Amino acid sequence: MSILTVGTVAFDSIETPFASAEHVLGGSASYISLAARHFCDDVRLVGVVGQDFPDEYRQTLLDGGVDLEGLEVDPEGKTFFWHGRYHYDMNERDTLETQLNVLETFDPTIPESYADSNIVCLGNLEPGVQRSVLEQVVDPDYVIADTMNFWIENTPDSLRTTLQEVDCFVINDSEARELADEPNLVTASDHILDMGPDTLIIKKGEHGALLFTEDSVFSAPAYPLEDIQDPTGAGDAFAGGLAGHLIRAGSLNQESLRRAVVYGSVMASFVVERFGPARLLDLGPGEIGERAQSFRDLAAIPSLVPLGKQLA
Ligand code: AMP
Asked: Which end of the chain is more exposed for a tag (fewer CB within 10 A), N or C?
């Protein structure tokens, strides 16, 4: 069973109120695949970098167990660059600069060996490029997609076309409001499900995630962490854990989807503990299980006693 991820492989410069880092390895595809790899042996990455992409970063992805046959190197161009600054409330961030560079002309050709991928995870990327990858995969079992405000604002029609081919759409709360043009998240979810996906997951940063289908809602908590170093990649690590669990479960029913949201939240909770994707690289297998259990404990509601009955 395999997962194909497509997205950016990037240089990120990140500022928080407490620390900063320049030109660290980032990008949606990097985070998704490094997270998914903890659940699935066969994680394939499709993306593009420039001639300036260092061997050291390539090696980091390889050490994380990611298949890089689909990572193109554009000898003419520079690697995608993103510069973000987090507020004191680290749920808020400003994008200070986005340099698309090699992404401007990226027209992915996926390796033949990737055409049979079971789950396709379309990371944050120009929606037309997301579609072009989908066209090259033969009948995938499940398509998960992410996006961000940049594409909602700059390529809204193309995004809507892509959404018609997506099974599970994962976005954050402000993006959901913007895409649906609706402040209430429940109403926004109805509008977005009407655009094509069967399942919508709305991430709410440190307030957890909501899973919507046509006739159900599930709410997962976020893990209350004391030390958040860098929230970058949390959304992507979430998507990686989600895809990873679904492959492991071998099923797409409600129960599997709910557990997958918890494993997505687990991976997001780890990635924020260090700058860049570092934490995804030193995670022991036991740690994922332990944190998943903590999530379960965190959300356990004791049995309820109707009003008028004696409390035990
Ligand atoms: P997240 O924190 O999960 O929303 O994702 C952060 C990652 O998204 C960073 O590593 C960036 O390199 C990448 N990124 C930022 N802007 C874009 C964009 N417009 N398109 C694709 N990826 C982006």
From this structure: C
Q: pLDDT for 4-20, tens place per residue?
A: 999 999 999 999 999 99
Q: Is the pTM of this model over 0.85?
A: yes
Q: What's the pLDDT score for residue 156?
A: 96
Is the minimum distance from the CB of 124 to ligand 1 under 6 angstroms?
Answer: yes
Mutate to test the pocket of ligand 1, among 232, 269, 275, 279 (most ligand atoms within 8 A of CB): 232
Question: How far, in whole angstroms, is CA 76 from its chain's centroid?
Answer: 29
Q: What is the CA radius of gyration of the chain?
A: 19
Instruction: Name the residue with the closest Cα to ligand 1, atom 15.
Output: 82
Residue 123 near residue 250, CB atoms below 8 Å: no
Mutual angle of helices 28-36 and 234-249, in 10-degree steps: 40
Q: What is the pLDDT of residues 172-182, one digit of tens each?
A: 999 999 999 99
- Look at the domain 3-298 and name its fold: UDP-N-acetylmuramoyl-L-alanine:D-glutamate ligase (3.40.1190)
H/E element, 211: strand 209-213
Is residue 11 lining ligand 1, measured as CB closer than 6 Å? no
